[in-house]
Amino acid sequence: MKFLLLMLGLCLCSQAQPRTPILVELFTAEGCGACPPADELITAIDQIQPIPTANLIVLSEHVTYWDTSSRDRFASTALTNRQLGYAKLLKIEGVYTPQLIIDGQYECTGGNGPEAKRLILEALKQPKPQMEITANRINGKIKTNVSFFGLSGATVLVAIAENLAETKVSKGENAGKTLKHTAVVRALHTIGTAEGLRFDTTVDLPMPPIVDNFRVVAFVQDSKTGRILAVAQSKL
Amino acid sequence: MRLSLIFAATLYAFAPNLNPIAWSLRVEPTHFKLHASIAQDYKLFSPTKSTPGPIPLQIRVLEAAWVKLGKPVATQTGDTLTGETEIAIPYRLRRKLGPDPLTIHIEVRYQSCSDQICLPPTTRTLEAKLLPANPVL
Question: What is the ipTM of this complex?
């Protein structure tokens, strides 16, 4: 963990300051030999919150193109397509793992702590409106309310993510390793489009195959640029 | 400590190379010689890779009605290939060529990784001309 912080080159400051939420998406795969350090980095970012002015909301999104010898149980075509969408929007030559996408605007390799820090600080320059989220388990559903002001014309998405997941990998580049993942996306729903001055919507989302231990992350994304305009999370 | 920080920052200062392998193909009387120029720090998974995981280099000829490929042999041994490497692919013609050269296409499909990133399966198609003098099955 100390090494990861060293890589981030961050100081741990104790002064209480308002924190701007920043969405940090990690595209990763259990079959990718280069990915475990990035999984560790995203875990450290989530747990330590090392930038005093940022509330770093992380998501691990597992892609399918490494499912050659064994299936990554967290991977989905939807997440692979999401990464391909970023490649197009950010004009990147192709996709790769591990890849960090910061606030839908900036990208770097997943284990690149110093660059991640630089990009997070860059993303912090953009103001964000406050977003409220509440999520509760009711009758086998996740009742989620999302509200915010003043973001017309953007897509509102909700991710349900497993807080901590662990897999003992039996095949491939990571065979023999026990991989630990943080905020692993198990479902991603589009719940609406922001229109008018205020967005306030309650939805009943299906419970993913997780008994416990998950978080709900809502974010507003400009579909033309990919930029994350607002983000908030609720841990259950 | 300071040196470690500088090293960590410098190590990752470059954008990832998403096209780390340059391919070329030449025809010899009994073999195709496939040359891979693999960027520094990257590895390609060998066609003879025995362990499960990323796909090994797969080679096929699109004009299978004309050409039969044998088992590829890389100049490097082991599950991964690095640097400059050559893969020999024996071939036989299935039928006699006419007076004109036959253009054939060799398709390679592969995955590659560096210490920092891994790339999804990639397909490239290489072209070569077979002359009437080449051997017939």
Answer: 0.84
